[in-house]
Amino acid sequence: MKAASWAAGGWAQTADRLSATFNRRTGTTTGRSAPDQPLLRGAFRMDMTWVTDRIAVGGGIWMAENMAAVARSGVTHIIDMQIEFDDTHLAGPHAIEVLWNPIDDDFQPKPPEIFQRGVEFAIQALDQDGTKLFIHCAAGVHRAPMMTLAVLCSLGWTPEAAQNLIENARPVVDFADVYLRSVERFLDQQVRAGE
């Protein structure tokens, strides 16, 4: 499929899937029949949920105008977990620091190094006054929540409390068992390293 035709059809299909997932998880509807729905220009333009006053989790940024919205929200640092797109060039004009920490959403175990890079970046960012961190992937359903869980636990939250916080703030989150086990392995390794 050519890039232009995928951009028209692929993004529309992705937006439809995200909309259906959001509606199913939150019990909301758009009030429009499927053929009348636009490409969710307003509904999913910048998909960002604050789980604490300084940490947000969400979906892909993709465009300069969305990065501008992220900057206006006060975000100073981004952990980009998506393998699909590196935000670095979009963030430059806003002086937002980006850690591109790409992993595939393939429901396979994730190596501790992925979490270590993200946690080190997050802690360094949050140690500075006035900073805010946005952790995202493409849809904000699997990879970004998984990294957010690792960050919160590294900041002292219990896994259960952190998971509940994330799920309550962002109902579309789906903590796959394999990803939870990956975070647990990372946290166990952190504990062993600190002994």
Characterize the structure shown.
This protein has a 5-stranded mixed beta sheet, with helices on one face. The chain starts with a helix and ends with a helix. Residues 1-44 have low confidence and may be disordered. The chain has helices at 3-26, 64-72, 88-91, 112-126, 143-154, 159-169, 177-194, and strands at 48-50, 55-58, 77-82, 97-103, 133-136. Strand 1 (48-50) and strand 2 form a beta hairpin. It is of the alpha/beta class and 195 residues long. The protein has 2 domains: 1-43, no CATH class; 45-194, Protein-Tyrosine Phosphatase, Chain A. The radius of gyration is 17 Å and the shape is globular. It has 7 helices and 5 strands, in the order αββαβαβαβααα.
Give the proportion of residues in helices: 40-55%
State the separation between the terminal residues, measured CA to CA: 53 Å
Approximate shape: globular
Q: What Rg do the Cα atoms give?
A: 17 Å
CATH superfamily of the largest domain: Protein tyrosine phosphatase superfamily
- The level 1 CATH classification of the largest domain is Alpha Beta
The class by helix and strand makeup works out as alpha/beta
**Quaternary structure state of the chains depicted:** single chain
DSSP strand content: 5-15%
SSE succession: HEEHEHEHEHHH
Tell me the strand order in the biggest sheet. Answer: 1-2-5-3-4
CATH topology of the largest domain: Protein-Tyrosine Phosphatase, Chain A
Mean of residue pLDDT?
83
Give me the number of helical elements. Answer: 7
Main pleated-sheet profile: 5 strands, mixed
The stretches of 5 or more residues where confidence is low (pLDDT under 50) are: 1-44
CATH architecture of the largest domain, by name, is Alpha-Beta Complex
Number of strands: 5
